[in-house]
């Protein structure tokens, strides 16, 4: 019989119970016991879901009050010294508040300390806490939570499989800290890490655990030779453990790590058969006869219902060949999809029938297993038929396929992505028209989203504030933002984005082809969740989306007003995207819709338009060899959205991340007249990449960190801009903050911007 399981389940809860409980605990509204009780209740419910769906085991170890990578750091006793946890480590039990301090810098008990770094987990939107490593690092088993959870699950009568980030992926995700951090080889710590993993596995075996899944998604990336060797060394050592090991790989194919992974001495191997279906055959051919193969065939990264009939046909020969050794699962942990579609009672029935969230993906996995075993009940048959009908309906739906969109896309030519003239000529025309001083000042778009603004938006959304009243409220906000910017003396103004809840949702709500859920939350980090729109069909723009706000804003001032749009790649990247056509094609549709908006803004007299692409970099594939292919279409989509304007209209873009070195060619290829970036924390060293590449267009390197409440001093910003001027000719420099100001209050923003404007004046006198 085909064995079914999941690599992990969302822990946040269908109603974000975990978020609510942890935040209440941090605030002091509930005590530790109440928090632990909520954790237990969620685990119990999630295991029950897995059993009720009919999976062969429940997965234990995927729960975390903050982050599963942090959990392993605790398990290994990798707690940096500044958290003062020596006693806890000596006792072999790190306190939960210590974990929260590592994650957030503070907790209800214990001294505050600088939080650990957080960064994106592979190519997902989930953020993990980066393990901090140093050469003298000692490891010791320092948390019994995992064992307690195993005991809990067993007490509930479940068959248990334990899931744990594998030793090499844990090290791979870690970073050297302190002296010699650059030269420090993380692999030097491997033996110490393995020692503790060995203890963990032994203890799990004592608890009667048969299977332990070690997650090694690092195997889906390009690995240096030393790391590949380390995999062999590590797994040969772990082989001695008295449990069976399932090596789990996902987020992509094994590629050049395939032989390595297939030959590691483990009892089962999990493959991502959604991202790379072709690797399955190659692995099957080489799999030793005692090994099981777990195929991740249900998409753990997206929300679409699976094509079970097609999967059945594809897998039937494999099932015949592998028999009991074939396991089925979603491609990766279900952490990356929303919890339960059943809650979406407001989504129309048709759209709903096309979707599967985590809970539904359990059913799909089980159903597919039963179909392969030819043991379908009458009810199962009916569910399969319903699934097939829903898929057929989706394929044929006019809501998905709009002939006008396809025709327009087909008519696009290379010339549509080209501005009329090269940057040099455009810059001359724009300088004349905009009449900006040297070191022009601007901001990135949003101003403080005050409680009143959010309340007005909410009231409007719930029908408690009439359209006209809402419009008047937002116009008053815009007027206020314009007044403040004029008083500050900024050179290029923005309308402030008061009307936007979120930079993607705002556009998704105004474009055809997008749907929104009520509870489709996915954990982003700690207690933070995001609710990505569902991009289900051809994208079209029924009406202008931002023009009236920008037009109104421009009518209030003689200074140039910057139009403000979210770029095609960012809209794509922060949505659940349809899986029935290449992402590039979907992105081009968004680009065309934005192109119309850009044209309308220009026609309305807007002289500068910013198209934000903060997510361009995070769309990079995990494998280097695939970067160029992605960058080619991503860059072209941006250009397609922008290149409709005349030379005199200035196109801006904005990105907030701190690595440009390896994609600087693509950044230049965007051919934006002005790019604003986050640089203040890198001391302008980030601009080296722009200098070395001889980046030709204008740059606004951020001069102050918007994440900090501190007011930046004039001198400090002047010094930063002097450093910028050493790298970029002054005629091409702008002065602006790192990013938008929506999370700050006016009390911080006004003095900070006043200093920034003063800094620009000092610079103008000097140059
Ligand atoms: N224009 C947006 C803002 O200012 C940009 C946000 C972002 O870069 N993430 O808020
Ligand atoms: Zn930004």
TrEMBL record:
GO biological process per UniProt: methylation
Residue ranges of domain Cobalamin-independent methionine synthase MetE N-terminal in the record: 4-321
One Gene Ontology molecular-function label: 5-methyltetrahydropteroyltriglutamate-homocysteine S-methyltransferase activity
Residues involved in 5-methyltetrahydropteroyltri-L-glutamate binding: 16-19, 120, 528-529, 574, 618
Matching Pfam families: Meth_synt_1, Meth_synt_2
Annotated binding of Zn(2+), by residue: 654, 656, 678, 739
Keyword Isomerase: no
Protein's UniProt keywords contain ATP-binding: no
Pathway(s) per entry: Amino-acid biosynthesis; L-methionine biosynthesis via de novo pathway; L-methionine from L-homocysteine (MetE route): step 1/1
Binding site for L-homocysteine: 444-446, 497, 612
Reactions mediated catalytically: 5-methyltetrahydropteroyltri-L-glutamate + L-homocysteine = tetrahydropteroyltri-L-glutamate + L-methionine
Family designation: Belongs to the vitamin-B12 independent methionine synthase family.
Function: Catalyzes the transfer of a methyl group from 5-methyltetrahydrofolate to homocysteine resulting in methionine formation.
PANTHER family cross-referenced by the UniProt entry: 5-METHYLTETRAHYDROPTEROYLTRIGLUTAMATE--HOMOCYSTEINE METHYLTRANSFERASE (PTHR30519)
Name assigned to this protein: 5-methyltetrahydropteroyltriglutamate--homocysteine methyltransferase
Gene name, Swiss-Prot/TrEMBL: metE
């Amino acid at each position: 019989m085909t064995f079914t399981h999941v690599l992990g389940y969302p822990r946040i809860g269908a109603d974000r119970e975990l978020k609510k409980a942890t935040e209440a605990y941090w605030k002091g509204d509930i005590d530790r016991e109440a928090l632990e009780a909520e954790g237990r209740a969620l685990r119990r419910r999630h295991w029950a879901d897995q059993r009720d769906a009919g999976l062969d085991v429940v997965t234990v170890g995927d729960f975390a009050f903050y982050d599963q990578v942090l959990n392993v750091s605790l398990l290994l006793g990798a707690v940096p010294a500044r958290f003062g946890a020596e006693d806890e480590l000596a006792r072999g039990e790190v306190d939960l508040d210590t974990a929260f301090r590592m994650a957030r810098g503070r907790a209800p008990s214990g001294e505050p300390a600088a939080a650990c770094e957080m960064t994106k987990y592979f190519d997902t939107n989930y953020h993990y806490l980066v393990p901090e490593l140093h050469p003298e690092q000692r490891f010791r088993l320092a948390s019994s939570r995992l064992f307690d959870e195993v005991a809990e699950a067993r007490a509930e009568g479940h068959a248990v499989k334990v899931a744990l980030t594998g030793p090499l992926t844990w090290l791979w995700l870690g970073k050297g800290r302190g002296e010699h951090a650059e030269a420090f080889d993380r692999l030097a710590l491997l033996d110490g890490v393995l020692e503790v993993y060995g203890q963990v596995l032994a203890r799990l075996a004592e608890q009667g655990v048969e299977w332990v899944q070690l997650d090694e998604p690092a195997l889906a990336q390009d690995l240096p030779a030393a790391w590949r060797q380390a995999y062999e060394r590590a797994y040969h050592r772990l082989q001695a453990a008295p449990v069976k090991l399932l090596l789990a790989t996902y987020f992509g194919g094994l590629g050049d790590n395939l032989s390595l992974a297939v030959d590691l001495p483990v009892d089962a191997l999990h493959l991502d058969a959604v991202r790379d279906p072709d690797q399955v055959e190659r692995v099957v051919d080489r799999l030793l006869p005692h090994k099981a193969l777990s195929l991740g065939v249900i998409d753990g990264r997206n929300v679409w219902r699976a094509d079970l009939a097609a999967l059945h046909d594809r897998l039937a020969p494999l099932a015949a060949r592998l028999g009991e050794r074939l396991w089925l699962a979603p491609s990766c942990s279900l952490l990356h999809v929303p919890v339960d579609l059943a809650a979406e009672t407001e989504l129309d029935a048709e759209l709903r029938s096309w979707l599967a969230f985590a809970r539904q993906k359990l059913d799909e996995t089980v159903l597919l297993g039963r179909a392969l075993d030819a043991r379908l009940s009458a009810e199962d048959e009916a569910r399969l038929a319903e699934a097939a009908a829903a898929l057929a309906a989706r394929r044929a739906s006019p809501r998905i396929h709009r002939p006008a969109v396809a025709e327009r896309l087909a008519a696009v030519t290379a010339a549509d992505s080209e501005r009329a003239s090269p940057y040099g000529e455009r810059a001359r025309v724009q300088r004349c028209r905009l009449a900006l001083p040297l070191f022009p000042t601007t901001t990135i778009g949003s101003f403080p989203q005050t409680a009143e603004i959010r309340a007005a938006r909410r009231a409007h959304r719930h029908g408690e504030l009439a359209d006209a009243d809402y419009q008047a409220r937002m116009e008053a906000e815009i007027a206020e933002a314009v007044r403040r910017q004029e008083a500050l003396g900024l050179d290029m103004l923005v309308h402030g984005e008061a009307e936007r809840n979120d930079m993607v949702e705002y556009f998704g709500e105004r474009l055809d082809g997008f749907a929104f859920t009520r509870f489709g939350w996915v954990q982003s980090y700690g207690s933070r969740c995001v609710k990505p729109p569902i991009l289900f069909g051809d994208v079209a723009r029924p009406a202008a989306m931002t023009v009236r706000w920008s037009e109104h804003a421009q009518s209030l001032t003689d200074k140039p007003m910057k139009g403000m749009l979210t770029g095609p790649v960012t809209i794509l990247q922060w949505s659940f995207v349809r899986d029935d056509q290449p992402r590039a094609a979907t992105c081009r549709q968004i680009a065309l819709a934005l192109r119309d908006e850009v044209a309308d803004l220009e026609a309305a007299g807007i002289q500068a338009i910013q198209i934000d692409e903060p997510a361009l970099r995070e769309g990079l594939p995990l494998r280097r060899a695939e970067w160029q292919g992605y960058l080619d279409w991503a860059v072209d989509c941006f250009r397609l959205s922008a290149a409709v304007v005349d030379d005199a209209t200035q196109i801006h873009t904005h990105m907030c991340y701190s690595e440009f070195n390896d994609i600087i060619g693509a950044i230049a290829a965007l051919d934006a007249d002005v790019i604003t970036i986050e640089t203040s924390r890198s001391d302008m060293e980030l601009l080296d990449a722009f200098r070395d590449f001889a980046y030709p267009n204008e740059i606004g390197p951020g001069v102050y960190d918007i994440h900090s409440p501190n007011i930046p001093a004039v001198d400090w910003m002047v010094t930063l801009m002097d450093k910028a001027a050493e790298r970029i000719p002054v005629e091409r420099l702008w002065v602006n903050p790192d990013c938008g100001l929506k999370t700050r209050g006016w009390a911080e923003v006004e003095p900070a911007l006043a200093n920034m404007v003063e800094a620009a004046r000092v610079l103008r006198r000097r140059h």
